[in-house]
Amino acid sequence: MPGRRRLAPAALASPLVAASLGLLLVFDLAHHMASTLALLGAAFLGLLLVVPRLEAAPFPVGGAILLGALLLRLPLLPLPPTLSDDVLRYLWDGKVAAAGMNPYALAPEAETLTPLRDESWRLLPHKQVPTVYPPLSLAAFSIAIRLPFPMPVWKLMVTGADLAACWLLVLIAGRLGLPPGRAAWYAWNPLVALEVAGMGHVDALGVAAVVAAVLLLLRPSRPLPAGTAAAAGILAKLVPLAALPMWARQGGGPARFLTAALGLTAVAVLPVLATTGGIPPGLITYGVSWEFDGPLFEPLWRLLAAIHAAPALARGLDGLKSLTGIYEGLNPLYHYLYPQFLAKLLLAAGMAAAVLLSLRERDPAAGTGRLFGRLLLCSATVYPWYLLWVLPWAALRRDAAWLALSGLILLSYVPQFMGVALWPWVYAVIWIPFFGMLLLPPHCRDAPWGVSATAAQSPRATAAETPHGASLQWQDNHGEDTDGGPA
Fold this sequence. Notes:
globular, mainly alpha, 23 helices
């Protein structure tokens, strides 16, 4: 009976599960965007209403959170990947790898791969670009493609990883002395369920590895397992690479942590670099050419165009050539003198600054949230599923700005499927509320809904029980929340 009582709060997920069932009835989400957004909006409203009750529960709710997360995702598993065709590319890359060929060197349109083509090949995105996915993801793709019904198998794989991340997040909340119900802001988040169980995004593998790494870092005596988990995150998607310097300082054994993380990464990545002669061409193409809904990128490149920054730099390059007499060596630089690329260079400097700032962080959970948040803001490409890297940490902090963005970011599907331009109005509706909330004083962002931050604290939690001396308010080294990421 006590076990049933503790699982009873899973019934709070009923409105969210109902929305998932509605999405299953809609089925082809891309061609019924208005209905899709209405159902997702209702789901987010349900999230706002039910999670504060989980936070206030007087008994452990971890099992209920996991059960609710499972029920929320099950109806989404049969959905076709109409909002994103990435999963088609995953399975193609897995097919190439399973056939003993190199997807890092061979783009889908390569004649060498003609025998592998099937009906789904015609639907592949970016046939001219070799794969951008790291080796662990590629191995997972190749496993799924070898099994019967690869698409359902793949969705089950990433959904399993996602549920594992939900459970690990409950454990982190307990470790930090926070109410376990905080994890439901991630586990029951409609965006997370849609992008993983519905659209099958590989990010779930990397996020699960990162959450595991942070949990292990909260126990400083385990640097080797933490480094192994960090390597798994990097080899699923490269994002966690930026966190290695910060994590190494937090892990209680920097040398052992980096030996595991960098050693395992090198073992998997060096053969790829050898076969492609350096950075894989797909990654180069992504870095130079990809851009969509970058919150700082979109206005920045337009500003650079308005002030004619590229022509000014071209004139400066002309003068440098005349001064030095170097012509052939400098001529290729003209190719990169356009506003979008210049904006990416400036934002790359911003990312480097974010990594340096992260070295001040004492608490792995808060620091990871801030770092990933800043990196996302500096990215030229922000698809809805990119928020999965930030949302676990925003959930623990109940950060209003990032949690609101997880709902608003779904509007970025409107330009693709409803014929509305992204700039300026869709962009404005997504990002202006977010930045407005981000600039609010920390106490206004801390507990925006339902239960206050202090009332929701576990009675067992004290500042002395938290790791590394981090306070329950997740303050930085100066005692104030910093912006640019979930505090």
